[in-house]
Write a structure and sequence with these properties.
- By secondary structure, the chain is α+β, with helices and mostly antiparallel strands.
- Helix 1 packs parallel to helix 3.
- The longest helix is centred in the middle third of the chain and has 20 residues.
């Protein structure tokens, strides 16, 4: 089996730490029986892990007036990963509750604005920092108790002057367990909506949570880039050599080469580029030499900081999740930008982002690449199997 053919294990909520945990589990199981499709609700999944030891769970269930987020630890898995499928945050009506497995908090946000329909989306999805910029919610916190002792009260907090203190008769505190029971009742209402939709019955698909891709042979690439190389550190190189010699000698979660790292655009840039450019990639380019040192010829891409650095020759078997971008357009953009700011020598972050964006906008799936780039390089957004690389030795032999 190839990594692309491996379906992650589905994790379900099973914690009973909070009063709403049981009904949260019922909600997830009810959605599963309906192939995760209920009118007016969207279900998102999150997958984590490596090699042949990956897991997925319901990350978010959202409707027009609620969402449920799942990312709370509820134990350890045999492979050492956390089981993070328990519910962690609930938005229902004009309240948001966030809990933790160590009983830190909880945090409660209460809407107090006057234009609910206008503010609803912002209240539900905005970062809850500095309410005084919005003036639409109050924040409450249970603080922290040693030994996982639950706080008795959820108390209004001013958060070092950045939030609002409850005024004009606004509630100063809530009893923690009473508030938890209220949210359990809210989840019961959501469950009723789900149960109103018929189960899938004969159309039930136990694997609907994760659709495996159709494998695309790399031979279908019309304009291959030639020999491509990528950097790796000693740990990856050693795993490749061991995995190619005897795959079964490695634990399932080590049966992969490596996965993507650097992005074409930094996450905080805010520049409009193809969404995929913000993902992490394995960068592979032509191999060149400078004296005794060999290097991958991609502008502004360097080996890892953990020496010694090694090289892998990249030889994909499948074209899935592989892209091409052009370094030449980046070099032109840098040169033009440097000329425009003279005599100032150093580019600002925004100016560097503008140059990065030119390269990021050149990204295309390798199947769509037309062969026109002057300095093309390969970007791989998936884990590679051991037969998709060849060890090529040290950067500095």
């Amino acid at each position: 089996m190839r990594l692309l053919e491996y379906r992650p294990r589905l994790l379900l909520p099973h914690s009973r730490q909070f009063p709403f945990d049981e009904v949260a589990e019922k909600i997830v199981k009810a959605l599963e029986k309906r192939n995760w499709k209920v009118p007016g609700m969207e279900v998102e999944f999150y997958t984590y892990g490596h090699g042949f030891s990956k897991h997925t769970y319901v990350h978010k269930i959202e409707g027009d007036d609620f969402y449920l987020k799942f990312h709370r630890t509820q134990g350890r898995l045999p492979d050492g990963y956390n089981d993070a499928a328990a519910i962690v945050e609930i938005w229902y009506g004009k309240e948001i509750l966030h809990v933790s497995d160590d009983e830190f908090g909880p945090r409660l946000y209460l809407y107090v604005g006057d234009e609910w329909e206008k503010d609803k989306h912002d209240f539900a999805h905005s970062c809850k920092v500095n309410a005084k910029l919005r003036g639409t919610y109050l924040e409450y916190s249970g603080g922290y108790s040693r030994g996982k002792n639950r706080a008795k009260w959820i108390i209004n907090t001013d958060d070092t002057g950045r939030q609002y203190i409850a005024e004009n008769g606004g509630p100063k505190r809530f009893a923690t367990n009473e508030k938890y029971r209220e949210f359990a009742e809210h989840l019961e209402e959501i469950l009723k909506r789900i149960l109103a939709t018929p189960e899938a019955g004969e159309d039930y698909n136990a694997t609907a949570y994760y659709e495996l891709p159709t494998l695309i042979p790399f031979e279908e690439v019309k304009h291959p880039l030639g020999d491509m190389y990528a950097y790796c550190d000693g740990r990856v190189y050693e795993r490749v050599e061991e995995g190619q010699k005897d795959l079964e000698s490695l634990e399932p979660w080590k049966r992969y080469v490596y996965t993507g790292g650097d992005r074409l655009m930094r996450l905080t840039s805010g520049v409009e580029v193809p969404e995929v450019a913000y993902d992490g990639f394995i960068w592979a380019g032509e191999l060149k030499c400078k004296g005794a040192e060999r290097y991958v010829d991609i502008t502004c891409h360097w080996p890892t900081l953990f020496e010694p650095n090694y090289l892998l020759k990249i030889a994909p078997k499948h074209a899935n999740d592989i892209y091409v971008a052009d370094s030449a357009v980046y070099e032109i953009a840098r040169e033009e930008m440097s000329t425009s700011i003279a005599p100032r020598g150093m580019l600002t972050d925004d100016e560097l982002d503008a140059c990065d964006a030119v390269r990021a906008r050149s990204i295309v799936p390798i199947l769509d690449y037309d062969g026109s780039y002057k300095r093309p390089f390969m970007l791989i957004r998936r884990e590679l199997d051991f037969d998709e690389v060849e060890p090529a030795g040290l950067v500095k032999p």
